[in-house]
Amino acid sequence: MKRLKIAVFASGRGSNLAALLSAIERGELHAQIVLVMSNKSDAGALEIARRHDVPALHLSAKMFSSATEFDQALLAHLHRHEVELIALAGYLKKIGSVVVRAYKNRIVNIHPALLPSFGGQGMYGIKVHQAVLNYGCKVTGVTVHLVDDEYDAGAPILQRCVPVQPGDTPEALAARVLEVEHKIFAEALQLFAEDRIEIIGRKVRIKP
Ligand code: GRF
Known about the structure:
It is a single chain. By secondary structure, this protein is an alpha/beta fold. It has one domain (4-197): Rossmann fold (3-Layer(aba) Sandwich). It is 35% helix and 24% strand. The protein has a 7-stranded mixed β-sheet, covered by helices on one side. Strands 8-9 form a two-stranded antiparallel sheet. The mean pLDDT is 97. 5-O-phosphono-beta-D-ribofuranosylamine (GRF) binds at residues 10, 12-16, 89-90, 110-112, 124, 178, 181.
């Protein structure tokens, strides 16, 4: 059976990318990561890609004279690698509308909280977990969602809870949330691989 061709965009260390590659190796995710793209030349994710013989691309809007030119160059790379789905794994840049339109309902992000809480521009990394603790939440979690023109605004595909424990530090909470991220992202992408994602209005329905 044909494998779903995925591009992973990441700005940082790439632990989610590594988890996806492991899920593929274990046969739990029927997909192929055909491209890893980062806006940061020193992103750990690019290094992980190279170690796995996955094409690693450093591409940043700073290399182009306009956002549209950047989007078009990015789109050309995506088409060249026959990318069918884009997975954002800690990618800190907004996806341009040209790419959002070309990959409508085929771009997925992972966020380390239960959206729509603790999301939006600037809400990333340890700041998310700090905000959860500052609010006094008893539960947080992970959201895998579709990507549209707004930060963290597309419909959820899968969400999973992580209880906050008394005495949690942002770092301790982040580590427990990350463990869940590493499972749920592959599960969500496998739903695409099995063609079980249906979009109804703005919501995602998972076909049985
Ligand atoms: C993860 O917490 C993810 O939810 C968020 O950015 C972080 C990326 O971590 N969007 P890593 O680079 O995959 O280790």
